[in-house]
Amino acid sequence: MTPTRRPIRLGGVQRRFTTSGAVASPSAADADAMPVAPNGQTLMLHNTMARRKEPFSPRDSTGKKVNMYVCGVTVYDYSHIGHARVYVAFDVLYRQLTRMGYDVTYCRNFTDVDDKIIKRANENGEECDTLVDRFIAAFHEDIDALGCLRPTIEPRATDHIQDIVTLCERLIEKGYAYPADGDVYFSVDALPEYGSLSGRKQEDNRAGERVAVDDRKKNPADFALWKAAKPGEPTWDSPWGAGRPGWHIECSAMIESILGKSIDIHGGGQDLVFPHHENELAQSTASCRCCATDGDEPEEPFVRYWVHNGFVKVDSEKMSKSLGNFFTIREVTEKYHPFALRWMLLGTHYRAPINYTQRALEEASDRLYYLYQTLVDSRVALTEAEASATDAEVKGKPKPPTGVAAEGIELAVETKAAVASALTDDLNTPLAMASLSSPLKTLNDLVSTKKGKKAVGRNVALRDLVKTVEETLEAVGLPHEGGEGLLEELRLLTLARAGLTQADVDEAVAKRAEARAAKDFAESDRIRDELGAKGVALMDGGSQVWRPATVVNDK
Fold it and tell me: 293-303 burial, b for 16+ CB within 10 Å, e for fewer?
């Protein structure tokens, strides 16, 4: 089927959509009319449907309002690091859209009725609602700890049963679904566009391999919209008898009920492209005006931009409970700071696969400590410098900056532009974070070196660079104020991983001082190396007695 195109004007920008919902490539005439956000910037997003990056343009005629739906967790267990990857990625997108001046409605659901939930509740001898409430609370604890902002709306599937039933009825009436012994199935053959999101063909869904065999189905690839009641399961009334919703239908129903029949952004992990999002697209396209049943081009696609993050591997293998390499968020954050995990996740582009390793987490933790120690030291230096500022500096008549200060002032401007460019280019967080390297080095020069302390314009450079670093941290969801508390938390976690207490370190420091005084440098080095192997790096000189160090167990 060859898609046709027709122009649609939204937000003052000429846009074209294919029948599958992809944004068509801009023509030469469109090049000067790239869509811009309220702040004047253009955001490029990779659209899974189009298989490329596209300029973001919301449906809203004013160009200011954006609605975004991200598939949430099925709440039957603690959330794992794969979930952390998803929700950190879309938290950055939420923050970026908001920073660009959009009024964003962010909806993220909870699947609170599912085979896994029912099985776990029956195993525990508890009600499904009790199980669900407990793990929703745990999910919020974990995701909040990672610094993710709460969505605008967090609906539960069971609060939208009537919306689900109504949607099923509409699909049956339009000929896209059919009842079968209390179940209701979607007929994939009725929708020629089925497979457009994932690129899969019907013959890929062969019975007995990826799709369960069921003689009641017209096509083995047909999927359940409604499931007939079974003993020991929660059920609701429907025109087809007591039962419960299938997995895919809940998101289509909640999106339509809460956000409308067409939305700007739909997100989730790459594993959801097929079958979940493919089936969502089919249901919603078939059920509403998005479906061109009369041959006319649809006015709006169900979703303008499909956005998906890459997989998480553990030590280069697929994360799996059977392989023993499955980690929940709270298992990781018992040993490492939640922001170290967030830093590690942000260090890989959200669409690329990420390899979770101890080394990566150790290095993220080390970098986090360096960053916040630099910020804390720079703020102290700035406060002291401002307190001793000359009359000319206070009155705004300083001498032209020189040396490292002049370089720092220019670097602050360049870094701000580089970060903005990186984040508007499909949320390139690795590049944005890498842009902090030079500012942090320059801040340390201004704080600790002779040339930095004497540079004319040092106060301005310190202030500009600190502000630039803080703004970057805020953009990627890391704390941008304070820092002393976070440093202490990082030190305590280091001691816990090493099996040491602060008293143990103090005792070792005292013994090392005695050895150095006795010129027993072999013993001094032994103590230093022994602690260093455990992640405690002793510091000679300066205000810090020790700081966390990277430790990698290669065994």
Answer: eeeeebebbbb
Query: Is residue 8 over pLDDT 60?
Result: no
When pLDDT is averaged across residues 20-30 and rounded to a whole number, the result is: 48
C-alpha to C-alpha distance for 417 and 422, rounded to whole angstroms: 9
Question: Do residues 427 and 88 make contact, with C-beta atoms less than 8 angstroms apart?
Answer: no
What are 433's two structure tokens?
Answer: 């974070």
Which of 149, 142, 154 has the alpha carbon at shortest distance from 111? 154
Neighbouring C-beta atoms of residue 490, cutoff 10 Å: 21
**Three-class DSSP category at 208:** coil
What per-residue confidence (pLDDT) applies to 394?
Answer: 54
DSSP 3-state of 64: coil
Measured between alpha carbons, how far is 228 from 241 in angstroms, rounded to an integer? 7
What are the φ and ψ backbone dihedral angles of 367, each rounded to 5 degrees?
-65, -40
Cα separation values, 89 from 75, 126, 251, 307, Å: 20, 34, 20, 10
Q: First-to-last CA distance in the chain? A: 55
Sequence-separated (6 or more) residues with CB below 8 Å from residue 181: 216, 228
- pLDDT tens column, 355-399: 999 999 999 999 999 999 999 999 999 999 888 876 555 556 668
Does 275 sit behind a cis peptide bond, omega within 30 degrees of 0 on the bond before it?
yes
pLDDT value at position 416?
98
**Dihedral angle sign, alpha carbons of residues 50, 53, 55, 61:** positive
Angle of helix 437-448 relative to helix 458-475, nearest 10 degrees?
Answer: 150
- Give the pLDDT confidence score for residue 288 in this predicted structure: 81
Q: Give the containing element (helix H, strand E) for 471.
A: helix 458-475
User: In the chain, pLDDT over 90 holds for what percent of residues?
Assistant: 80
* Structural element, H or E, at residue 229: none
**Residue carrying structure tokens 């002393």:** 484
The letter for the amino acid at 168 is C
Half-sphere exposure of 436 (CA within 13 A, CB side): 24
Determine which of 293-307, 329-343, 510-524 has the lowest per-residue pLDDT on average. 293-307
**Helix/strand/coil (H, E, C) string of 347-370?**
CCCCCCCEEECHHHHHHHHHHHHH
Task: Say which residues have a Cβ less than 8 Å from residue 539's Cβ, sequence separation at least 6.
Answer: 545, 546, 547
Q: Please state the length of the chain.
A: 555
- pLDDT tens per residue, range 52-82: 999 999 999 999 999 999 999 999 999 999 9
Q: Which H or E run contains 512? A: helix 502-517
Joined together, the tokens standing for residue 347 give 């260090």
Is residue 24 a contact partner of residue 70, using CB atoms and an 8 Å limit? no
Query: Which parts of 161-239 fold into alpha helices (H)?
Result: 161-173
Q: In this predicted structure, which of 15-29, 91-105, 116-130 has the lowest mean pLDDT?
A: 15-29
Distance (Å, whole) CA 306 – CA 296: 23
Which residue would you say has higher pLDDT here, 299 or 388?
388
Single out the residue of 476, 42, 96, 34 nearest to residue 267, CA to CA.
96
Classify strands 312-314 and 354-356 as parallel, antiparallel or unpaired.
parallel
In this prediction, residue 435 carries a pLDDT of 97
CA gap 32, 55 in Å, rounded = 12
